[in-house]
Amino acid sequence: MNATIVTIGDELLIGQVVDTNSCFIGRKFGDCGIRIIERCSIGDDATTIINTLDRVLKQSEIVILTGGLGPTKDDLTKHTLARYFGCELVRDQATYEFVEQMLARRGIEFNALNQAQALVPKCCKVLPNRNGTAPGMWFDTADGKVIVSLPGVPFEMEELITGEVIPRLAQRFDLHSNVHKTIITFGMAESVLAATIEEWESALPKELHLAYLPNAKGIRLRLSCYNVEREYGEKLIDKAFGELESIIPDYIMGYEDASVAEEVAKLLQSKGATLAIAESCTGGRIANQITSMAGASEYFLCGVVSYSNQAKQDILGVKAETINAYGAVSSQVAQQMAEGVRRIAGSDYAIATTGIAGPGGGSELKPVGTVWIAVASPSGTITRRMNYGRIRIQNIERASTTALNLLRLVLLDKLDTVTSDAIL
């Protein structure tokens, strides 16, 4: 069963608004066995909407439109669909009364524009929107296909997709399940990971499809099984991932939304240990990842953003002669930062970062993207130099996650058992 998602709005084309609707619909449809074969964004233009419908209906049984259903003149979707299907706009009384009551509760005038929200093409089935003024609209084509038009406001669209659209599609079409599961890895470059698990990948059952999804927080491996009974697909995927866990156990953080930060939190909690953090180039990003998790107060004591050399000296106790001799971006300074924050916080473990995030400030010996990371623990302090690229935000993200991963490996006592690039 093929579907196309069309998001409508000039604001999407000029980058003023990010299209999150397609992501939500794609996930929900994927779980139902509906294959999204195209996603596109178009402007608020009647001709473009009509031409797009003509094109995508040749390839899809289901077309989902979002956006352009507001009360103002730039919202053309409803009028264009009435023209497309050759029917007039009529008042849906249930929508009219609902909108009137909603606006009365909010103290908003029920003016002509708001009243017009209850006008719908006579040939559609109205999908009640309990979170807004614009109803959803379901159209059946002459050749048995379905067009659904939904509000562009995400929380309104999401409720209509789960509460109205998917149940109706399940009644209309014979849907099977698509099963997806994602495992989170960190510590191997994509090419190294692919080579390491090549034999496992080659032996996967023909029903399973593997995708590599890299980002600064690691590489996600997604296994998918299409058009199957859900229980059968889940068993295939669980068995395959169970085999993978035995191949790269030290590089797996968990499943779906798992992260290195969560693994560090679990380890600190299990050991009853505490953490302090000193950051320079990462500017508080590591502390933010830790404190974003509920329960962080059990193990996190403090974070210091010592951006200037003077702050490194005055707050963390980094020696001026160390900075003068080796520079602020050095193993020696990273070590003294980690040991300093561990000392002043009285923590069991500490992380420190110092580097050149970019895009300027580098040198031949220390190019942009150079970062030193240190982890101080009861058994001593280790440091590692990382070499990233020239994109500032990526350098900050990578350094933050790498620092947490280095701490994870220390907590697991795994530094001697993993490959040298395992803290990537």
* CATH architecture annotation of the largest domain: 3-Layer(aba) Sandwich
Tell me the name of the CATH class of the largest domain: Alpha Beta
Strand order of the largest sheet: 2-1-3-8-7-6
Any low-confidence stretches, pLDDT <50, length ≥5? 419-423
From the 3D structure, determine the CATH topology of the largest domain: Molybdenum Cofactor Biosythetic Enzyme, Chain A
- Give a short account of the largest sheet: 6 strands, mixed
In DSSP terms, counting alpha (H) and pi (I) runs of 4 or more, how many helices? 16
Strand content: 15-25%
Q: How confident overall, as mean pLDDT?
A: 94
End-to-end Cα distance: 41 Å
Q: Return Rg in Å.
A: 27 Å
Q: Helix share of residues? A: 40-55%
Judging from the principal axes of the Cα atoms, what is the shape?
elongated
Going by CATH, the homologous superfamily of the largest domain would be: MoaB/Mog-like domain
Structural class: alpha/beta
Q: What's the number of domains?
A: 3
Number of strands: 17
